[in-house]
Amino acid sequence: MTVTLSEIFVKKSGTSLYSRDELGSLTLKKEFIKRLSQYYDIPYMMRGTKENNLCYANSSTIRFAYKPFFSEKDIVFHLLSSLEQDTFDINSTVVTFV
Predict the structure, then answer these.
(1) Are 27 and 42 a contacting pair, CB within 8 Å?
(2) Among 36, 17, 39, which residue's Cα sits nearest to residue 26?
(3) pLDDT at 52
(4) Half-sphere exposure for 84 (CA within 13 Å, toward CB)
(5) Would the CA dihedral through 8, 9, 15, 17 be positive or negative?
(6) What does each C-alpha distance from 20 to 2, 46, 54, 63, 64 come to in angstroms?
(7) What pLDDT, on a 0 to 100 scale, did the predictor assign at position 4?
(8) How far is CA 56 from CA 7, 61, 81, 97, in A?
(9) 15 Cβ partners below 8 Å, 6+ apart?
């Protein structure tokens, strides 16, 4: 599934360029979360698991297709690890979920 960042995040008014930190602090669109959940056929959990969980299935480094559920943290981790630049145009930057 390939989407632009504007399909994922709620933009701040009048701004289309964001740094990595700014991007990570934006609100996710509920429509995108629902779409991602349907695409992978896994549920979304508002709160992720604790960092120290020994189960690797819940690790943020595991691909979405292998997770029992996903959280906002998983989405942001995937985005920031797959995008190489430091500044993003939310209207034109594209990301792929595999």
Answers:
(1) no
(2) 17
(3) 46
(4) 0
(5) negative
(6) 19, 22, 28, 21, 21
(7) 94
(8) 29, 9, 18, 20
(9) none
Q: Tens of pLDDT along 41-96?
A: 888 887 654 554 545 555 555 665 666 778 888 888 888 888 888 899 999 999 88
Q: What type of residue is 48?
A: G
More confident residue, 32 or 53: 32
d(CA 98, CA 1) in angstroms, rounded, equals 7
Assigned token pair, 53: 């969980």
For the residues 10-37, what does the mean pLDDT come to?
90
Q: Which amino acid is at 36?
A: L
Secondary structure (3-state) at 33:
helix
Q: Which of 8, 5, 31, 1 lies closest to 91 in space, CA to CA? A: 5
The burial class, CB within 10 Å (0-12 / 13-18 / 19+), for 47 is: exposed
